[in-house]
Structures are given as C-alpha cells and as structure tokens.
Amino acid sequence: MALIDVQDLIKRFDGKEVLKGVTMSLSEGQSKVVMGASGCGKSTLLKCLNLLVSPTSGRIIFKGEDITRPDMDIHRLRQDIGFVFQHFALYTHLTVEENITLGLRKIKKMKTAAAREKAAFELERVGMIEHRNKYPAHLSGGQKQRAAIVRALAMDPAVLFLDEPTSALDPQMSREVVTVINKLYLDNITMLCVTHDPFLAKYISDSIVFMHEGVVVAEDVAERLFYEHEDPRVRQFYLSVIDHR
Amino acid sequence: MTFGNILIILAKGAGYTILVTLAGIGAGLAVGLLIAVLQTTKVKAVQLLLAAYTFVFRSIPLLVLLFIVFFGLPGMGIRIPPFLSMVLCLGLVSGAYLAEIFRGAMAAVSRDEITAAEAMGMKRVQIFFYIIWPQMFRMAVPGMVNEFTSVLKYTPFAYTVGIPEIMKEAMSLAALTLRGLEIYLAVGIIYYLIYKAFVLLFETLEKRFRIPGLAGE
Amino acid sequence: MILMDAFVQDLIHYSPQILAGLKNTLLLMAIMSVTGIAGGIGLFYLSLAQNRFLRRGTERFISFFIGTPLLVHLFLMYYGLPPLGIRLSAFAVAVIGFTINVSAYNARYLMTAYNGLDKTQIEAARAQGFRFFQIFRLIILPQALRLSVPSLTNQVIQNLKDTSVAFLIQYPDFFAQMQEIASTNFQFFKTYVAAGLVYLALVSVIVAAARRLERKVALPGLETLGRA
Fold it and tell me: Which of A42, A57, C11, C217 has a C-alpha 20 to 30 A away from that of A227?
C-alpha cells in the first residue's frame, strides 16, 4: 500500500487552475523527485499534500486516511510530515539547537534534556554539531539548509518533503546540501522533493515525476527522462537544463 | 437640545482646534528645522546645547511646560497671551521631536551623493538645498505625520489657558446639560474626523512628492 | 537668594504631600505600562485573527484610540458616566483610560514590527504542525517584541509624561500636588520648574534602563527597528 496516494488533484487559485488533475503515489522507503518548468504546479502539489494549501478537488490518501475530508486534523497530519523550504525559514530568534528542540518540546512534548540529546545526535549526522549554539544570521546558506533539514527530520516524520532545497544556494553550498540529502536517500528515508536541479534529482531519487502545466506527463528514472525522452515537452525541458555534450 | 445641536456647538470650537494645530505644526517645523540645520555644524558647544534642548523638551510633560509658560512666567514679569503660550509650547516640544526625525532622515542621505556634489564644486548651502533637503524631507514624512497628529492630540490642553476650542465648549455644554456621555463621544468623533482628514491630507501630499526608488526608512 | 531658601523650605515643608503625589504618579505609570503591554499584546493577537471582522474591528478600535486625544477618553469616563449612574474614581478612570490608550499604541508598534518579519518562518511553523496560538506565542511574539523595544520603551516615557494629564480629572498625582503648593505660596514659576526638573530626572532613569534593555535583547539578525 502506498504511503501517499494522490488521485486527480485539482487546485484553483482565483479562477486560475494550477493543478489540473494530478495523480501520483509514493511508497514507504521510496524517494521521488517532482520536476518541471516554473509554473507547472510542482510546489503547489507539495503544499497540497500537507494541506498548507487546500485542494479544490481530488483525493489525497496518507497512511490510509483520506486527508481531504472535512474533519481531518490538519495539525496531526503536518506533525507527521517534515518540510524543508527553499529559503530555509529557520526561526531567527532561536539558535540552531533551539530551532530543532522547539518542535520536539512543544509538539512531541519531550523533556528539554532529551530533546537536546536528540538534536545533538541529528546535528552530528549532518556535520553541524559545532554550530548548535549559533543564530541563523551567522550561518551560511548551506549551513542554514542543513539545519532546516535536521529540524524537519528530528520530528521523525513519516515522509520528508523538500521544496526547491538547493535553489537559493550557490553551487558550492548546493553540493553540501545534495551530499546530505543523498545520505538520507541511501538511508531509505521516504522523500518527495520538488526541484529544477537535475544534479540533485539524479542523486536522490528512485524515480522522477515530470509535470507540465498542472498534470503529470511522465514518470521514469533519471537517465531515461533526461536524455532523448519520447515526450517532446520532457525533451524540451531537459535540453534547456542539462548540458548535453 | 438634540445631538445635532450639540455637534454644531462643538464644531465652532473645532475651528480653534484646527487653528491651534496648524500654528503648532508651523512652530514645530520652524524649531525642528532650525535645530536640524544647526546640528550639522561641528562646534561642540552647539551640539551639546542642542542635545540638552532635545532632551529637556522631549522629557517634560506638555502640560507642565504650558503651566510654566502661562501661569509661571507672569510672576517673572513676562505675560504671554493664551494662544501664543499654547503655540509656543507646542512648537518647543514638537520641534524637539521633529529635530530627531530630521536628524535621522539627514543621516540616511547617501554620503556618496554628498561627496559627488562636493567634487562638482557645490557650496555647502547648495548641497543642502539641492541634494540633502529633497531626500531628507521625503524620508521624514512618516515621522512628521506622526508628530503632527500628536500636536492635534495635545490641543485639548488649550482649555486650561482659556482658548475656546472644542474641549472648552464641551465642558460648558456638559455642565449645562449633564449629557456628558453624548457630548464627549461627539468630541471624540469630531477629533477623529479631524485626525483622519489630516492623515488623508498628508498622504495626498506625500503621493504628489513621491520619488521612485527613494523608499523612506 | 533669600527667596530661594524660602522656596526650598517650602518644598521641604510640603514634602510629605509631594512624596505622596510622586507615589501616585509612579504607581499610575507602572500600572499603565504593564497593563498597556498586556493589552497591546492582546490587541496585536486579535489583529492577526482568522476572522476578518475581528481583524477589521481591532484595526478600527486601535485607529480610533490612536486618533483621538487621551484627555477626551478620560473626560468621557469621568464626566460622561456619572449621569448614567456609573461613578468611577479618578484612579479607576485613569487606569482604564490610560490602559486602553497605551494598549492601542503598543499594538500598533507590534504590528509594525510584525510587518518586518520574515513570514516564511510562520509557514515553516505551520508546516511543523504548530497551532496558530503556539505560532503566535513561540515565533511571532518574541520577535515582534524584540524589534519593538525602542518604541515600547519610548511609550513608557510617554506614559510618565501622560500621568500629569490625570491631574485634570482630579487625580492627586505629583503635578496636582505641585499645583496646590504653587497656589498657596504663589511661586508659580519656581514650583512648576521644579516639577519639570523632577520629570526630567525620572525620564533619565527610564532612558538609561531602556538602553540597557535594548542591548540585552538584541539578537543577531534581529537588531531592533532603530530608535524611535
């Protein structure tokens, strides 16, 4: 049974249809990347799955539950989904450690000491332990994103969502973060990542879901999608983002 | 006496309120600008004097200052009529706040532009008028609007020195009719309308003078 | 010189009243500063409500109390309520009137600070599964308060100055006492100037405390929004 099952998802913003009937699924232990040109709806899709954005119609089944039903407990759902944002979105007034322990203490009701231990353990795994008492303003982009990833993972979610995690980073920092996410991939963390970066996509996905103007057009492994795909829309996109030498 | 009658009687006082406000704003601007310009000199004594001035007049309650000027000075042989007393006090206090606002706005003008003007051979006075003032003025607008509405909200004190503005009319009316609630509610509404009118006026003026790219602080 | 001594003697003679007045002034100032912050935070919270009517209503409430003179609020309660049978003491009127007034200003400062916040943090908090009240308490408020410290401390100074207005509704504050002394010894100028000097001294103390608070509270990335 799939962890997430999306059926015919439609989202309309003020008369404009951004998602025109998306169908896809994600199983436990799988890692998929959603790619497509700007405006194809990939970020909107992600935000519908944790109800940051409310779908106009369609069904989303998460862990066997229909989360689009009216009496769904949104907060409980979100507590089970880790979310990493393009611009990090760390809490400016808290240190790295405090950023991570906040959710552990206030949502999971962990005791402070236990929360700090967990935070330290996770920070160690991504090589950020020496920055635990720093404020976000003193971190580089790559460090901020790694901290954000830890903040999401420390809650032990069922799945990790990443929305353009490397798009705001320069190439060097981008590699830093790709390395971390790749490690997660190798650890079989269930992930759904939205990106337009093919380098990232290749190293962290079992398969790539390609979207075009609000619908899923193709789904395949990176190699078969990137080079000479039969669908012209897919071909055109990858011709423009990959160096085909 | 209907509520309408009350409003009309109070509206007569509104004329004085607006007069006192405008005069107070004028006095405040004069003082504030003077101080802002004086602050650009490098003379230490002047700087100290100005710092002392702004401290004193931002720390003293307006009511106390008004009493010193109107009730205190006559004992020293200086008799200042009510309207002038009120305007003087408003000018001194408001000027101190405006000076701070102008100082901040002046400091925000790009040093590079001033250097460029100096390099062109402009004299200090010219630099002030053509480069500093236009930008500083626009950046000070939010602070100025704030300060001007403050002046408006200080005008009720004028009744203590006998100026027949809204508050004074309201008090005699209330003593007469014992309908204090309605009267003071009406007073509040009238002040609020005047306040809104002022804010609208300043916003329109600000839009006329706005320059793209010069986002105020 | 002789006059000076007589004047100082006068002050010493009246010092019990003066101190009582000072106590009333400081008491009022302290109370309204605290209730004003609490009220300000409350209004700030309401201004972020989901419900559109609540948001608009709060904004109108704040706008009205910022746009009308403090004295009007006080007179409204002190002279307007008795004919209806509600007779509040000068102290009660002062506390209520000042609290509402100060709350409105503080709410406005907090709202300004909120506009300067990086809103993606709020989205991240929602994504983590925090409820709105938690987001307000843990993310929005701590940052908005820090950014507003200069405005909020300036408001405390304003509070001190505003206490003198309470004298106009017969609250026996420090200025009221000085008024009485002046009307008995006819040394209006000296008495009022002395009163002014006392206010200056008190303000200096508040300013010093405010500067220390600003330093304590500043965090990297959250430098306070300039001096008001």
Answer: A42
Q: What does the pLDDT read at residue C227? A: 41
pLDDT at A245: 57
Q: Is A35 left (phi over 0), alpha (psi -120 to 50) or beta?
A: beta
Q: Give chain B's domain count.
A: 1
Whether residue B59 is contained in a domain is answered as yes
Note which residues in 74-93 of chain B have CB less than 8 A from chain C.
Answer: 74-76
B36 belongs to a structural domain = yes
Mark which residues 17-46 of B lie under 8 Å from C by CB.
Answer: none
pLDDT in tens, B10-28: 888 888 999 999 999 999 9
Chain C residues inside the 8 Å CB shell of A83: 124, 127-128
Strand duo A31-35 + A191-194: pairing: parallel
Quick one: pLDDT at residue C3? 56
The secondary structure element, H or E, covering residue A233 is helix A232-241
User: Over the stretch A30-53, which tens digit does the pLDDT of each residue have?
Assistant: 999 999 998 899 999 999 999 999
Q: Tokens 């002394």 correspond to what residue? A: C181
Over residues A21-31, the pLDDT tens digits come to 999 999 999 99
Tell me the average pLDDT across C33-55: 95
Is A200 a residue whose pLDDT tops 50? yes
The answer to whether residue B143 sits within a structural domain is yes
Sign of CA dihedral C22, C23, C26, C28: negative
Q: Is B148 left (phi over 0), alpha (psi -120 to 50) or beta?
A: alpha
Q: What is the CATH number of the domain that holds B64?
A: 1.10.3720.10
Q: For residue B217, give the nearest of B101, B98, B94 by alpha carbon.
A: B101
Q: Considering the domain boundaries, does residue B115 fall inside one?
A: no
User: In chain C, what residues touch B157 (CB-CB under 8 Å)?
Assistant: 71
Whether residue A103 lies within 8 A of chain C, CB to CB, comes out as yes
Domain containing B9 equals 3-109+139-209
- Residue keyed to tokens 């990939």: A42
| CB < 8 Å from B in window 45-104 of C | 64, 67-73, 75-76, 79-84
The verdict on B104 touching C (C-beta cutoff 8 Å) is: yes
Three-state secondary structure call for residue A8: strand
